[in-house]
Amino acid sequence: MLQETAFICPMLCPKGLRNGPCGSGSSESCCVEPSRPCIWHVIYHRAEQLGRLGRLLEVQAPLDWTLVGGETWGTILSEAQDRNLLSPSHLLRWTGWREEVDSLFRDMRQPDWWQGDDVYHPPVSTSPASSLQARLEHGTFVITAEVSPPTGADPKTVEITASRLRGKIHAANLTQNPMATPRMSSLACSLLLARCGIEPIMQLTARDFNRSALQAEVLGASALGIHNILCLTGDPPTAGDKPAGGLPFDLDATQMLWILRRMRDEYRFLDGREITDPPKLFLGAAGSPSDSNLWHESIRLEKKINAGAQFIQTQLVYDVRVLSQWLEALDRRNLLGKVHILVGIGPIRSSKTARFIQDHIPDVFIPPAFIQKLEKSPEPEETGFEFTLDLMQKMKAVPGIRGIHIMSMSWENVIPRLLREASLDNQLLSET
Predict the structure, then answer these.
(1) Fewer CB atoms inside 10 Å of the end CB: C or N, the chain?
(2) Separation CA 136–CA 404 (nearest Å)
(3) How far apart are CA 213 and CA 227, in angstroms?
């Protein structure tokens, strides 16, 4: 893989990510080992210097764990000898020899069970897999919200949340063990929400699923009528309470999308077996409009879209200017017509919350003037509400935005008022 990753080994990433950075690292620090930079940001910078950024788009396979710890170069040299690439006569044909060597390396890094590439794969079927997909394709401005699963086994917790949101949103995300802390499963909560009349978006994290569990979970979800899947890499195990889980991950978000798209469109498991009844899926990924390097962010998203992402839900955005610059970066890579974008918004009720988000959530920019306004306000909750309401109205008018994703951050009861005063609840009522 080295010639595809600017000659820097991606396995220096503690998470073992082979297709680009997660959303938590930066050029200054890794989310697992803060004392050093994220190795993928180093790879991106080196690739840019060498003029090799385009080579980062190839979707790399998960590890074949039976080969881990073995001698990679010995295997490559043996294969090169079998192909007669080490003979003096071949070495003298420099151009042709280089092409044959490139073919050898590609065959080694892209085994028959994977065959990753760097091109866009549109969905095979034109029929929407879910109501959310149908609404987006019809041109409806959609509203989704995030729901945190309970820490206990009582379904009433989910049902109470559903009763507050029913008829006010189009779909709800069910997070999967946020901050690497065990909660009720996203699949179980998705089914509970669906029974309460809210369409679920089931979040799956690479941290919590190996390749076998991922395929089984999604088949079960589709059988239960859950078709919206958001693929995320996930916080590192060290983000949760001790004892922490292990690293590296078996998969990354891009690989999850690649596997699920092929299950849906090519009717086959990762191991090559045929799927007689393939799952119906509407696949999503996450984006970071406030990323410090939008050129790199656009390449990271292009790779996810090529792999199978049909919608993007972004990290929290508090500045329309930042959002517009991000959209321009995506447009330069011809991505806006290939994916539906839902912007993440989170109402802030205090300056303490604002500073916590700014300091602890990667790739989120909150205007300093807004934080100062919260500090001086006699009613910070109302100030935060008014700011969020104004932000929603502005974002709804931004070309290329297909919806808003509300992350309430333990302030769920503000959502109905937000939608009402933004005149978005009337749209929902007219649809029903």
Answers:
(1) C
(2) 12
(3) 17
